[in-house]
Amino acid sequence: MPPSSTDATPMKTSTKTLLALSLAATFGGFAATAIREGLRTPAEAEPLPAASTPMTAVLPASVGNQTLPTLAPMLARVTPAVVSVHTKQRVRVSPFGSDPIFRRMFPELTQERINESLGSGVIVDAQRGLVLTNHHVIEGADAVSVTLADGRTLKADFIGSDADTDIAVMRIPADKLQALPLGDSNALRVGDFVVAVGNPFGIGQTVTSGIVSAIGRSGLRGLGFQNFIQTDASINPGNSGGALVNLNGELVGINTASFNPRGSMAGNIGLSFAIPTSLVRNVMDQLVATGEVRRGTLGLETQDLDARLAAGLGAADARGAVVTRVFGGSAAATAGLRPGDVITAANGERVDGHDALRNFEGLQAVGSRITLDVLRDGKPVKLTATLHEQPRALAGADLDTRLAGATFAELPERLRQAGERGVLVEAVARGSRAAQNGLQAGDRIVAASTGEFEDLPGFRAGFTRAPAQLVLRIVRGNQRGDLPMR
């Protein structure tokens, strides 16, 4: 006997409930570097427009007389573009450790060891064979190879990398490759479903899924410039450099890190991070074109606004970056910024302090035009600045003849995020005046008799007049001391 009309509605509702539960089960708890330190039934709803909910990837699959959702068709297009990255590094090991005297006396006891590591990567240009991965995956490697999803292993050529955003570009032979299209990470919303593909722990290509937990995440210690997508999809060691895709199979992020205060071996706790494609695209284009990344800078120094300063500057809240120094000829000087101004927002993004402003600057390209919300004498002011190029390195001879032969560079941003300040001695020419004065490559200069500074522009600004005496306070390994330059 056919069911009555009163039986039909409950059956439809039951089927819908089963499908909803099946869909929820499909999205479970991806693979990278573990960060050990902290972060700082109502009526039926109207269906959402297709553009707002890209569910085209979730296609039905029949199981018996039930229809269940599946990501398999989308993943069939995505997984061929995700690769495993293998690196090898030659390391010379001595039983005397780093002791230079004994290493020279007994060179025959020094042995060579090959360190190998695994990571993931994403093919983003099949015509040119371009592969994206993390900088930390290939850092220091002497040889890099890529294994495709079809089993082929190919030698990879290094194009360029950027430690401060943890992005690297390689090239492999462009033969029958499949690439992932770059999606719009700016369109992501908290709650959107995402899928990760990579090679966790070297066990082979693995797919995990989850949702976007947060966007624009920053403030993670030990990493560089930050504007992360946070997801609860599992990221484990080996997934670094792998793909984070939306349900249309578009690349929206490069997996880079997971957070666990007990370390990666304690398991995934649902705090994972990916570099958004909005940032990846700009860095990749610069690396492919020139092999390096040029960044914009305002050309100023700031400090956090505390309660005492807030009261003196007429600020209602102890939040913002207080301008303490403006360098001559800088973008900040042209824009009209002054010492004592409090920057509270940049391009509409809230600025809570010094680190937040520096992170914002580091993510902007040279020539970017930005709008700053400023408090001046307690009154709001809007200023516009066009960012100048941030210097990557300085020759010591251009600063002072006593530094001739040395090259100075900015500290890696991961050290700044960990609270370090100063400039790095990048290289010292053998026999140069700087070498004769005892300066060594790898030294970190944290202070000088020329005045206080926190970065390369500040260090340079101290040499507008040649000091009668030049003394550098340096950190070398675990030691700190003053080095007179003669």
From TrEMBL:
SMART domains: PDZ. It holds the Pfam family PDZ_2. InterPro entries: PDZ, PDZ_sf, Pept_S1C_Do, Peptidase_S1_PA, Peptidase_S1C. Substrate binds at residues 136, 166, 238-240. The active site is at 136 (charge relay system), 166 (charge relay system), 240 (charge relay system). GO terms for cellular component: periplasmic space. The keyword Cell wall biogenesis/degradation does not apply. Belongs to the peptidase S1C family. NCBIfam families: degP_htrA_DO. This is Do/DeqQ family serine protease.
